[in-house]
Every structure is written in C-alpha cells, then in structure tokens.
Design brief:
Number of helices of chain A: 3
Number of helices of chain B: 13
Radius of gyration of chain A: 13 Å
Radius of gyration of chain B: 20 Å
Order of helices and strands of chain A: EEEEHHHE
Strand order of the largest sheet of chain B: 9-8-7-6-5-2-10-11-12
Structural class of chain B: alpha/beta
Distance between the termini of chain B: 53 Å
Largest interface: A-B, 27 and 29 residues
Order of helices and strands of chain B: EHEEEHHEHEHEHHEHEHHEEEHHH
Strand content of chain A: 15-25%
Number of strands of chain A: 5
Helix content of chain A: 25-40%
Oligomer: heterodimer
Number of strands of chain B: 12
Strand content of chain B: 5-15%
Shape of chain A: globular
Structural class of chain A: alpha+beta
C-alpha cells in the first residue's frame, strides 16, 4: 500500500468521444491492434497516479470522491494498478 | 481496464463522433510542394516554391493546431501533402503529434525515407505509413512522376521501412499510363507483405495551376470497371457496400451527403480548415478564426446546407456505386449544379456489369 505508482513516459491519456483511453507512444507497447480503455473510475484513478501519491493515498481519495466503503474498492484499485503495471503503462516503485 | 480490439474501438468511436460532432479524424496537409511532378496530382507545387513554403503553417502554428485538435477530441491524424517529408520540421511536428496521443497515418511518396526517419518511426511508431507506388517498372513509374531516379528512391524507402518493421501499406492511382501494371504492383505489395489498394477516380486540380493535368490521365469508365473486375477482393468490397447502402436515392434536400465535416475535417498547408479536402471554396483560415469557431460554426454552415436546385442525380438509384458529390462538382466544373458525367458513367457501367442494384431512372 506504500508503493508509489508512476505513469510511464510512453503513454498519453486521452478522452475521445466519451471514451477514456491510454495511447502508448513508443516501444513494444505501441501496439495499434489493441486499445487500453478505462471507465470513469479508472480514469479518476489514472488522474491520481502522479509519482507522489502512494496506493494508500489513491485509495483514500477515490473512497472520498465516490463515498465508497468496505474492502472492495481497495481491491479494485490495486487490481487496476496491477493490470496497468503488467501492461507497462505505469511503474510501481 | 478493458483492452479493446482496435476494430471494436474504432467502430465505437466513429459511431459516437458523428452523432456528437467530434472531429475524431483530421487530415493535415503539411505542404503542397513535392519532389515528384506527378502527371495526375491535384495539388502539387514545385519543391522549391518559396512563396508556397513561406505561406505554410510554421512549426509553432502546426504545434498549436495539434494541441487544439487534441483538446477537441481528435484522435486519428492523417499527415499528407504534397510530400510532407519535404518539411525540414517534419520530425518535430510528428513528435509533437505523437506526444498528444494521435494515431498517425503518414502518406508519402517514399523517396525521402532515410535512416533518420526510420529511426524516428521505429521509436515512435505511426499507425501506418502509406506509400504511393506509381508503377511496377521504372519506365512506367517515372512516366508518372516525371523525375529521373525517383523509382529507385521509392523502392529504397519501401525497403528501409520494411526492414524497420514499420506498418506499411502501398497504393496507387490507376491512370492511362500505369493501369497495365496494376496487377504487378499488387503482386509486389503482396510479396513485401504490404496491403495494396488503388483508386481510379482522378479529380481535377484544386487550384488553377498547370503543373499537372490530372483529367488527361483518366481511364475510361469501362476501363475503370474492367479494373474492378480484375480484383475479386475489390468486387467483394463493392458487393458488401451495395448490400449495405444499395438502391440509395439522393432525393433528399441535403447538399452534402457523405458525412464530411461531421466527425472529420481537413486542414491545408496554409491553415484553411474545411469539411474535406475537396471543399475548396468553403475553407476557413485558422489564422483568422479560432479552430473551435470553425468547427462549431463555420464548417456546419457549409456541410449542413440544403440543396435548393434539382440534379438528374436526385432520381438516380445508383448512389452507392457513385463517387459524385457537391465537392466533386465544384472541383470538376466550378459549378455545384452540374453533374460529373465521368463518375455517372462509371456508376452506370458498374450497375450494369455487376448487377448489384436496381435500374437507372
């Protein structure tokens, strides 16, 4: 939970026609056959990944914004960040 | 997080963009100057045309334009020309577009593709590069480009891009002087692992210059349809299109029926934005108007006009087989009320030979 996620320099976040997407710029993840598509909550989480906030901070902010309780939110945030890290969209440091 | 296939994502966004009028697809001519002198080109100017170069968008203007397009929701960016690689700041503009998250397609004649460019494109891949191949042989290719040595330079560019693993498609315009080599060009493309397409609808120049006379190189309408029939995939494409849009009558009162300016726009080298590249009379300068005004007010004022005159095409049911539109009429005749007989004839022959749609009224 103390891990601080940082966005890859090789990714651009875009909102296009109501869709939130992550567009890879360079290297092996610049695969135009697939597009990383976020829902609104995912976009809010991405917005908080700034290289300074820890996962704990991000969970707390999302919890406050969405007035969510329980452990599910924490699991969802961690799961999304893990997926992003696997896709090399963020670094976990 | 969903990982969507590109096809699903594209269909979803394009459907949403027209309804909500978001310019998701933008064409940007970086220059009309070109190092080739193709006989059929609708826009080319000499590569050393200083007046033209001085009028083109500066690097800063192009960067600001890309910033504004990104903020308006544009995603697909076609960089074309002229020969866009003639711009000394091409790399800078390309990188700027990449950093804004555009999916970039680059149209080029391939002759200026060097290792510096393939280095840039390898590191920051475009969505695709498309090279125009004007002939399968040196003799034919250079009869079209009118530049000695251009064939070898084009093949070298193709080789460099292939070796760099950059997604490359090939295409051509089918002309009286190269149509006999279309099947050979298709074979070469297949051997190189590239998709190949061609178009035979040669439009006149969009300006009054005489550097080329495209209409002199049009294949006859029967010849165009003969080419269609030589390519089973092309025939299948027509069949699918007719199944979807067949028996389309143009009797409504919309002046523009193609959807240009609804989810797309085109911007010329001098910063004139319009619904499509052929709307030559109806552009708006981004130097005089804000881009958002052009998109919200200027372009809709053109593309949503109602037609207050009658055309023979209004009763024709071959709309899905015909390229004819208001912009074509303007470029062809300078007269929006005068049909393009050449396209009409092609559609009639297609209809008769393919047997896809109903009778001509």
């Amino acid at each position: 939970m103390d891990t601080v996620p940082k966005r890859s320099d090789n990714v651009v976040f875009r909102k296009v026609a109501g869709e939130y997407i992550l567009v890879p710029l360079a290297g092996s993840i610049a695969d135009v056959e697939s597009i990383f598509n976020l829902n609104e909550t995912g976009a809010a989480i991405w917005d908080k990944v700034d290289g300074r906030k820890s996962i704990r901070d991000i969970v707390a902010e999302i919890r406050a914004e969405y007035e969510a309780e329980g452990d599910q939110l924490e699991r969802d945030v961690i799961s999304l960040l893990d997926e992003m890290a696997d896709a090399k969209l963020i670094l976990l440091q | 997080m969903k990982v969507l296939s590109y096809a699903d994502f594209s269909a979803k966004v394009h459907a949403a963009s027209s309804k909500r009028r978001i310019p998701v697809s933008v064409g940007l001519d970086l220059t009309y100057r070109c190092n080739n002198r193709c006989v059929h080109c609708y826009c080319s100017l000499p590569q050393n045309d200083k007046t033209a170069a001085d009028s083109e968008l500066s690097t800063v203007e192009a960067g600001n334009l890309l910033d504004e397009l990104a903020s308006m929701g544009s995603l697909w960016l076609l960089i074309t020309g002229g020969e866009p690689l003639l711009r000394e700041d091409f790399g800078e503009i390309y990188l700027h577009a990449k950093e804004k998250g555009f999916l970039i397609t680059l149209f080029t004649n391939g002759t200026l593709v060097d290792e510096k460019l393939t280095g840039l494109l390898s590191k920051y891949p475009p969505f695709a590069v498309e090279i125009s191949l004007y002939g399968a042989t040196k003799e034919t290719y250079e009869k079209v480009t009118r530049v000695r040595g251009s064939y070898e330079r084009c093949l070298a560019g193709i080789r460099r891009l292939r070796e760099s693993g950059i997604r490359l498609n090939l295409k051509t315009m089918a002309l009286t002087i190269n149509a006999h080599e279309i099947t050979d060009m298709d074979r070469m493309a297949r051997e190189w692992g590239c998709r190949f397409r061609f178009d035979a609808a040669i439009q006149r120049r969009i300006d009054q210059n005489m550097f080329s006379e495209p209409e002199r190189y049009r294949i006859s309408p029967a010849g165009v349809v003969k080419l269609d029939r030589m390519f089973p995939e092309r025939m299948e494409g027509w069949r699918e299109f007719c199944d979807r849009f067949g028996d389309r009558q143009r009797g409504d009162d919309d002046l523009y029926i193609c959807g240009a300016g609804q989810g797309s726009m085109h911007i010329n080298p001098y910063g004139r934005a319009m619904g499509c590249i052929m709307m030559i009379r109806d552009g708006f300068s981004i130097r005089e108007h804000g881009l958002s005004w052009i998109w919200e007010e200027g372009i809709p004022g053109v593309v949503l006009q109602k037609k207050n005159f009658h055309l023979a095409c209004d009763e024709c049911r071959l709309g899905s087989l015909c390229d004819e539109c208001a912009s074509w009429r303007i470029v062809e005749h300078g007269d929006i009320k005068k049909e393009v007989a050449y396209l009409c004839e092609i559609a009639k022959i297609r209809s008769r030979d393919f047997g896809f749609t109903g009778s001509v009224e």
